[in-house]
Amino acid sequence: MLAWLKAAHIATLCIWCAGLLVLPGLFLGRVQALPPRELKRLWHFTWIGYRVVMSPAAVLAIATGTGLIFGYAVFEPWLYLKLAVVGAMVALHMSYGLALARLAEPEKHFPRLAGLAMLGGATLLILAVLLLVLGKPPLDAGALPDWMRQPGSGRTLLQSSLESMRPI
């Protein structure tokens, strides 16, 4: 059973990572003005890629990865660092959705530097995950912050953050 879960995780992770690498190139198609028909086709293709292919793959990659963590009972410090990098990949994924929503307006253009930054960020995050998973570096658990080592302390951190954001 775990072999199938691992195969599903690797397959969906490959699709998600491919999307993280391909979408900035599609966004860069909007650096210049395009004829309305090409513009609509490019946006529709990008939207389908993000919504129908990449986002479900991301959800399934995270779900199967979570299953693998508990299936293999891997609770090592390198894993917590890897999960933080995956969280950054999720944030990058969400920024793609925001960029795509902005590009729904025909007069909007996409800055070349933003596309290159997205591509560079995706590349670095994917490489970081690969290095952590394949290398499993021996990290000292004491090097991690307290909230990462104590169950339930993330909730306390979130509550204190929300309280500090309340208007006076």
TrEMBL record:
What reaction does this catalyse?
A: protoporphyrinogen IX + 3 A = protoporphyrin IX + 3 AH2
Q: Would the keyword Disulfide bond turn up in this protein's UniProt record?
A: no
Xref: Pfam families: UPF0093 (PF03653)
Enzyme Commission number: 1.3.99.-
Which metal ions or organic cofactors does this protein require, according to UniProt? heme b
What binding details are noted for the cofactor?
Answer: Binds 1 heme b (iron(II)-protoporphyrin IX) group per subunit.
Keywords in alphabetical order: Cell membrane, Heme, Iron, Membrane, Metal-binding, Oxidoreductase, Transmembrane, Transmembrane helix
Q: Which InterPro entries match?
A: HemJ-like (IPR005265)
| CC annotations in GO | plasma membrane
Name one process (GO BP) from the record.
protoporphyrinogen IX biosynthetic process
Q: What is the protein's membrane topology class?
A: Multi-pass membrane protein
Q: Where in the cell is it found?
A: Cell membrane
**Where are the bilayer-spanning segments?**
6-28, 48-73, 79-101, 113-134
Q: What enzyme category does the UniProt record give?
A: oxidoreductase
The Swiss-Prot or TrEMBL record describes its family as follows: Belongs to the HemJ family.
Function, as annotated, reads: Catalyzes the oxidation of protoporphyrinogen IX to protoporphyrin IX.
Please identify the protein, giving its name as recorded.
Protoporphyrinogen IX oxidase
